[in-house]
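Protocol step 4 of 6: structure prediction from sequence.
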Amino acid sequence: MKAPRIPVILTLAWAMMAGQTGTGCGDTPPAGELAVHLLWNTDLPAAARGELSGLVSSVHISVRSGNTLLAESDCDYEQYRCLVDAVDAGNNRTVAAEAFDANSNLLYRGQSTGVTVRKDQLQEVAVEMQPAYSSDNYPPASIDDLAAELQGSDVMLTWTAVGDDVRAGQAESYDLRWDTVELNEGNFGDANQVDTNRPRPAGQAENMPVRGLPAGGTYWFAIKVADDEGNTSPLSNVVSISVPD
């Protein structure tokens, strides 16, 4: 699999429940409630922060002491928050997170080790999630903001880069085409192709001038995106523009 893409940060906060101090044999050990907040790296562009959008449908959290499972919980990814009840206080806890798609395929996972859960204290633990799938099953997203404007006798096309996996990472290539009839999935492959640069990382602005179009005509443009495994996006939105005489 390719190098890890944009990491997702899970912030784990323990709100220790007061009044649960053990006083003798048989007492319940001090325990806390684990609140799991899914947060994005705010340094990334908005499209990149949506890396898991459309892919992950659930997240599983587990807390262990050695090989002993202390607590676990499943949550809906869209809620951006999970709760794990009754986490025993203590040292050397391991907090693990796994993210799955709608077909229960493991997509991302990460863990934080050596975590100390302290009674009556609020604590946070960062878990960096890394891609866990072994092959590239997810094509780039379709471009939905392709736009065209005249700059002299040239047509300037602009759009926002998507990514290698939906809206994450960096795709491999563009297939940009134009024709004098409206483009669709059926006739796109027969249209005139325009040479382009390699796509930029997801979320960055792209632009491409198209030169030499005959004056006095109306032209339609569309684009597809491919990743390095040969997966291609659906057709973008189609735009048209007239070049005056």
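Step 5 (inspection) to follow. The chain is about 0% helix and 50% strand.
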